[in-house]
Amino acid sequence: MIEKEGTMFDVIIVGAGISGINAGYRVQEKQPDYSYAILEARGGMGGTWDFFKYPGIRSDSDLQTFGFKWRPWTDNRPIADGASICEYLKESAAEHGIDQHIRYHHKMVSANWSTDEQMWTLTVDADGETTYFHSRFVILGTGYYDYEEPLAVDIPGLENFGGKIIHPQFWPEDLDYSGKKMAIVGSGATAITLVPNVVEKVERVTMIQRSPSYILSIPNSNAGALALLKWILPSSLYFKIARWRYMFLAFLLYRVCQAYPNASRFLLQKGAKLQLPETISTDPHFQPKYNPWDQRMCLCPDGDFYKALKTGKADIVTGTIRTVDKTGLQMDDGTHVDADIIITATGLRLRLAGGAKVSVDKAPIQFSKKFLWKYIMLQDVPNLSFMIGYTNASWTLGADASVTLFTRVMSEMKKKGSTSATPRMENGDQIKSTPILNLSSTYISKAMDTLPRSGAEGNWKPRDHYYKDIWDAKHGDIQEGMEYTTVST
User: Fold this and answer.
1) In three state form, how does the secondary structure of the chain look?
2) CATH number at residue 26
3) Considering the chain, what is the average pLDDT of its residues?
4) Pick from 335, 304, 58, 340: nearest CA to 209
5) Cys-Cys crosslink for 99: which of 77, 93, 139, 233, Cβ 3.0 to 4.6 Å?
6) Domain of 280?
7) Overall pTM surpassing 0.90 (yes/no)
8) Could you tell me if 220 and 318 lie in one domain?
9) CA gyration radius for the chain?
């Protein structure tokens, strides 16, 4: 074990959000003799849930699976608000002493691997001062969103608008929208969340979408047989059953939508029609041009989005924005949407490693030129792992499979007496590449040329589903495509 003196550790985890906290737990569980630190660029724990402040921010996955396997979510609501999730993360970290390893206001600027020293050197901005950390392993729990810069908004004439323009990523806590006319541009999870959470205060809210999303209403309470089991079974057994139930339902929904896209489309649109007011039709507002799960499906707890539309203070406009003028948005069909406030809920900018530069022996690594070994480690980059979650299930499931696999690689290195583990690919230029994110959303498509690639064979293939991936993380092959090296330092 490397002593925790100053800035030298066995493992450095970057990011104190849900992935980083989970990684901290798994490292101290699987590698109890390893020292570790968590570097967090901001001043608080929680990542997304500490950062985003727009009205109604909530999970778009159930907390039974989005929460930690090692500390069950006990609230009766499967879909929770951001503040509750953030509090859950803080309590989980404190309960297991993970919070004692976090160093706030420590932003990793760059990371360089030295082959001679078999060590990572991280250049860190520590509250305005440059300092250096050293570790054998680096775990990137930074997610894949850019916290500092939103996705560039492509709305013609936006500069002409005479009111306020707000991006949800930087929502002002003092924004008063009472009695205002609000236009929300976008049709993803953020827009679907905002509409029911602002409708009571605004004079009117209009969601403007170029292309609709699939919106699935789900009950936001554990009722029926699950509620009965909670009273009958021991807590530990109940939470296992609840977790596996939600995992199975999400898995089943995705597989059915992929196998029977036309039937799934019909049922989802029929479900929407049953909940809509007579003034809003499914055509064109709830008829996406793509199949279910080609883009991430939006969840609507207790049908709150549809209830907002029934108030008469919320509506939807589907079409292309021609331009923005001083008083609102002019659509191609001649419709004018009056607005005092425009919310640009058009997606987030993707950025890996928190924007830090990664190099090996001072040679820069271009993520887009590299393949991912088992979805966690970059080709030709030793002892570094990404915590990447799922796009078609809860993020945390994928992040946990990632760190479970990486700590197993650490154990294999101990067994072999290795100082480094480096993914190597022979004939990489002959292997067909596939995207690492299997969605067609605009914000993902725009970032594809900056992301690593998956391969079409062997340990370079993309993930499939959690059941298979967690088994593989614990028992699968970790020799193919991996070079274990021992170097005396």
Assistant:
1) CCCCCCCEEEEEEECCCHHHHHHHHHHHHHCCCCCEEEEECCCCCCCHHHHCCCCCCECCCCHHHHCECCECCCCCCCCCEHHHHHHHHHHHHHHCCHHHHEEECEEEEEEEEECCCCEEEEEEEECCEEEEEEEEEEEECCCCECCCCCCCCCCCCHHHCCCEEECHHHCCCCCCCCCCEEEEECCCHHHHHHHHHHCCCCCEEEEEECCCCCEEEECCCCCCHHHHHHHHCCHHHHHHHHHHHHHHHHHHHHHHHHHCHHHHHHHHHHHHHHHCCCCCCCCCCCCCCCCCCCCCCEEEECCHHHHHHHCCCEEEEECCEEEEECCEEEECCCCEEECCEEEECCCCCECHHHHCEEEECCEECCHHHCEEECCCEECCCCCEEECCCCCCCCHHHHHHHHHHHHHHHHHHHHHHCCCEEEECCCCHHHCCEEECCCCCCHHHHCCHHHCCEEECCHHHCCCCCHHHHHHHHHHCCCCCCEEEECCCC
2) 3.50.50.60
3) 92
4) 335
5) 93
6) 165-344
7) yes
8) yes
9) 23
Same domain for 217 and 319, yes or no, is yes
Query: Does the pLDDT of residue 168 top 50, yes or no?
Result: yes
Residues 423 and 338 in one domain: no
* Three-class SS of 40-67: ECCCCCCCHHHHCCCCCCECCCCHHHHC
At 265, the amino acid letter reads R
Final residue in a domain of this structure, among 306, 329, 344: 344
- Between 35-39, 366-370, 381-385, the lowest mean confidence (pLDDT) is in 366-370
Same domain, 125 and 190: no
User: What is the Cα 204 distance to its own chain's centre?
Assistant: 31
Q: Are residues 186 and 332 in the same domain?
A: yes
**Residue 464: band (very low, low, confident or very high) from pLDDT cuts 50, 70, 90:** confident
Residue 2 included in any domain = no
User: Does residue 153 fall inside a structural domain?
Assistant: no
The band of 3, judged by pLDDT with boundaries at 50, 70 and 90, is very low
Shared-domain flag, residues 330 and 354: no
Q: What is the pLDDT of residue 436?
A: 74
Task: Indicate whether 115 belongs to any domain.
Answer: yes
Look at residue 434 in the predicted model and tell me its pLDDT: 80
- Quote the tokens at residue 114: 């030295």
Among 85-89, 345-349, 392-396, name the most confident range: 85-89
**77 and 202 part of one domain:** no
Decide if pLDDT at 62 tops 70: yes
- The domain total for the chain is 2
The dihedral built from the CA positions of residue 276, 279, 282 and 288, taken in this order, carries a sign that is negative
Is 257 within a domain? yes
Q: Which of 304, 321, 344 is the last residue of a domain?
A: 344
CA distance 163 to 339: 8
